[in-house]
């Protein structure tokens, strides 16, 4: 595996988190607290950057010690792990993150070592690339289809299901008439916005 | 593995008795010491796993306990705390993860399940008079010295149709095929009953998928209570009283059967994956075959690997969802950890097929399933394969027959370009089956029963 799987890019970033003593709230705790405030209904940063299939942010504290016979090991710092599977190339995606989710990106990465800020987009992109490691595993459900294609396919599947149920058993002429109307209607209905709608609501909205 | 001591295992854990009559008594222990004395008197009546040979007994008796029951008998706290968490919580507390919501929620269960059942005493018999006699003897024994009170009872019996005892259930399907076989327990090995070997043959599942303290399919020991002797040769039972809405089912089948080009009976077969006489659809998709049903070498011996599109047996058919065999790939390895042994039995009178039937009378199935890990086996099947369809690539679709549809469910019959086997969609699915109560029980070995009765369980 590598960073590219068909048309999908797999991004893995490890950003060292600042370690300052004498702080009332450590940087890693501050990131966790901020992440908890992010909306989970599609209005979050990855709903805005709509080419994202799946993304996750994890604060990695240290190597977990499991007791004997394993040996005790430690990381040199805490890390912010950022994983994302998205459509298109890396530069475009990082630029979208910097410009379309500016506030969220800054609130998270400002706790990381060497972060140059987000206003200088080129510097941000260069920083993120420095933190990049190779992606070896993708989100299991990611295939070679874009977010738009996936949403469109789900919408079509759901609509066709309802169409069959409503129209099965009709005479060929009536069925054809209904199908022509249906496909026209489906063709004129835009696919749902990423993160805007639950799968099972497709049908209700469409038909 | 070591040879199983069948005299130490409760017979009900080892096999279905195939008796046509049963009564399940639900007990409460009022006081630990009297409860233990009562159990001590009961043990000699408990049927073990010993083979019967020529003479079949007229009745059998088995016993199982809820967590509350074991606590009421004064089991040491350190032993109680070592039981798996789902058993400690009981089925009612697990309602949300099992999808037992809406009409299936505990709110609609029979009152006894709100009172807290301590023990299940299962009595099976060859005739109804044998059953009556055995049950009244047991009542006397239980009530002696106020050891236990019978808080409720549930009758169950094979359905009698036209004066004949059958293996049908209320929707008209022949039931009771296909229980898994386990190493050391199988006797009359039937191809299709265990797990698939790489050469395509069927072999028994690891003993530890059913009995505690034996290696399971992963070579591990499932969570079991302490000490070893309390757990060994025991198993867990899931008891669910499943009410069947016979009228709703018949109406729905008739309505959709009228639209389905293959006809009503074929549609009925697509729901389950078996024709109503029991013929596996995978083996005979166009008509029932008495020859296959009666042949133990054939009636559970099939795979789905060559029918991944669901042309013969729909991908979402009940028997395929609940036992996908090789359908998920990896030669069935994902399925071998999710097998349960069913000991179900109908209750209520059969409503003649030529009548509309009704939903209100007491009729359904007492579903009893045995497994070593309720969490990994029964609860997984219930949550992921019955109330959700993703593993079977059926999205949010629930099991057509027993899913908690609440009027919104759908079931896709994949079919083919054959005019009599077209794709067909069943929408607006109602609840054909509703949950009326139940709980999680522990079926101890004979040794463990003696230890509990003697108050000698030592968890250290």
List descriptors.
A: 207 residues; 2 domains; 15% strand; elongated; disordered C terminus; B: 2 domains; five-stranded antiparallel sheet; four-stranded antiparallel sheet; 15 strands; 24% helix
What does this structure look like?
The complex is a heterodimer of chains A (207) and B (460). Chain A is of the alpha+beta class and 207 residues long. Chain A is built from eight helices and five strands, in the order ββααββαααβααα. In chain A, strands 1, 2, 3, 4 and 5 form a five-stranded antiparallel sheet that branches. In chain A, helix 3 crosses helix 5 and helix 6 packs antiparallel against helix 7. Chain A is elongated, with a radius of gyration of 22 Å. Chain B is α+β, with helices and mostly antiparallel strands and 460 residues long. In chain B, strands 9, 10, 11, 12 and 15 form a five-stranded antiparallel sheet that branches. In chain B, helix 2 packs antiparallel against helix 8, helix 2 packs antiparallel against helix 15 and helix 10 packs across helix 11. The radius of gyration of chain B is 22 Å and the shape is globular. The chains are: A alpha+beta (207), B alpha+beta (460).
Short description:
The complex is a heterodimer of chains A (207) and B (460). Chain A has helices at 27-37, 45-48, 90-100, 102-109, 121-131, 147-167, 172-188, 201-206; strands at 4-5, 8-16, 52-60, 79-87, 132-133.
* Helical residue percent band of chain A: 40-55%
- The rounded distance between the terminal residues' Cα atoms of chain B is 26 Å
Task: State the major sheet of chain B.
Answer: 5 strands, antiparallel
Q: Structural class, from helix and strand content of chain A? A: alpha+beta
Low-confidence stretches of chain B: none
How many whole angstroms does the radius of gyration of chain B measure? Answer: 22 Å
Oligomer: heterodimer
Shape verdict of chain B:
globular
Q: What's the number of structural domains of chain B?
A: 2
Secondary-structure element series of chain A: EEHHEEHHHEHHH
CATH architecture of the largest domain in chain A: 2-Layer Sandwich
Give the structural class of chain B.
Answer: alpha+beta
CATH topology of the largest domain in chain A: Alpha-Beta Plaits
What share of residues of chain B is helical?
10-25%
Q: How many domains of chain A, as an integer?
A: 2
**Mean pLDDT across every amino acid position of chain B:** 95
Computed Rg of chain A: 22 Å
Distance between the termini of chain A: 41 Å
């Amino acid at each position: 595996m590598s960073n590219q799987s068909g048309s999908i890019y797999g991004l893995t970033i490890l950003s060292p988190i600042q370690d300052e003593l004498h702080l009332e709230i450590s940087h890693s705790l501050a990131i966790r607290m901020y992440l908890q405030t992010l909306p989970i209904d599609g209005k979050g940063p990855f709903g805005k950057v709509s080419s994202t299939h799946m993304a996750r942010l994890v604060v990695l504290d240290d190597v977990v010690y499991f007791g004997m016979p394993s040996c005790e090991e430690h990381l040199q710092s805490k890390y912010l792990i950022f994983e994302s599977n998205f459509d298109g190339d890396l530069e475009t995606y990082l630029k979208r993150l910097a410009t379309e989710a500016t506030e969220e990106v800054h609130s998270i990465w400002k706790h990381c070592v060497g972060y140059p800020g987000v206003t200088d987009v080129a510097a941000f992109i260069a920083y993120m690339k420095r933190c990049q490691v190779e992606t070896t595993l993708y989100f299991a459900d990611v295939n070679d289809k874009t977010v738009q294609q996936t949403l469109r396919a789900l919408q079509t599947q759901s609509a066709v299901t309802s169409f069959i149920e409503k129209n099965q058993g009709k005479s060929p002429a009536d069925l054809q008439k209904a199908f022509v109307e249906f496909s026209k209607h489906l063709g004129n209905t835009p696919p749902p916005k990423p993160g805007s709608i639950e799968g099972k609501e497709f049908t209700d909205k469409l038909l | 593995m070591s040879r199983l001591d069948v005299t130490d295992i409760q017979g009900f854990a080892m096999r279905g008795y195939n008796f046509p009559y049963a009564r399940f008594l639900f007990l409460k222990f009022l006081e630990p010491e009297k409860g233990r004395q009562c159990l001590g008197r009961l043990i000699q009546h408990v049927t073990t796993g010993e083979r019967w040979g020529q003479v079949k007994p007229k009745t059998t008796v088995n016993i199982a306990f809820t967590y509350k029951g074991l606590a009421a008998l004064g089991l040491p706290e350190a032993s109680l705390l070592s039981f798996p968490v789902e058993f400690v919580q009981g089925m009612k507390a697990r309602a949300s993860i099992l999808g037992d919501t809406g009409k299936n929620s505990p709110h609609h269960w029979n009152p006894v399940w709100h009172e807290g059942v301590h023990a299940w005493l299962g009595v099976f018999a060859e005739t109804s008079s044998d059953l009556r006699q055995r049950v009244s003897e047991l009542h006397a024994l239980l009530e002696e010295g106020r050891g236990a009170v019978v808080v409720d009872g549930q009758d169950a019996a094979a359905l009698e149709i036209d004066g004949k005892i059958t293996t049908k259930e209320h929707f008209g399907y022949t039931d009771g095929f296909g229980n898994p076989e386990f190493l050391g327990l199988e006797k009359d090995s039937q191809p299709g009953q265990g797990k698939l070997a790489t050469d395509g043959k069927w072999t028994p599942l690891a003993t530890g998928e059913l009995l505690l303290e034996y290696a399971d399919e992963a070579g591990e020991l499932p969570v079991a209570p302490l000490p070893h002797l309390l757990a060994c040769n025991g198993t867990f039972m899931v008891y669910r009283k499943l009410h069947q809405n016979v009228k709703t089912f018949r109406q729905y089948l008739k309505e959709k059967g009228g639209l389905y080009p293959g006809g009503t009976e074929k549609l009925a077969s697509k729901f389950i994956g078996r024709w109503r006489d029991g013929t596996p659809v995978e083996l005979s998709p166009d008509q029932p075959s008495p020859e296959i049903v009666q042949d133990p070498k054939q009636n559970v011996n099939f795979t789905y690997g060559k029918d991944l599109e669901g042309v013969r047996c729909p991908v979402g058919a009940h028997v395929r969802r609940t036992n996908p065999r090789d359908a998920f790939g990896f030669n069935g390895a994902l399925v071998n950890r999710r097998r349960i042994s069913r000991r179900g039995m109908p209750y209520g009178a059969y409503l003649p097929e030529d009548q509309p039937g009704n939903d209100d009378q007491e009729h359904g199935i007492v579903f009893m399933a045995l497994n070593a890990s309720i969490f990994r086996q029964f609860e997984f099947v219930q949550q992921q394969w019955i109330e959700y369809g993703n593993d079977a690539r059926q999205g949010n679709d629930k099991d057509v027959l027993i899913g908690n549809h609440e009027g919104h469910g759908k079931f896709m019959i994949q079919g083919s370009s054959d005019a009599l086997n077209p794709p067909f969609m069943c929408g607006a699915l109602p609840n054909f089956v509703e949950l009326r109560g139940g709980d999680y029980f522990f079926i101890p070995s004979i040794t463990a029963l003696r230890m509990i009765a003697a108050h000698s369980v030592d968890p250290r």
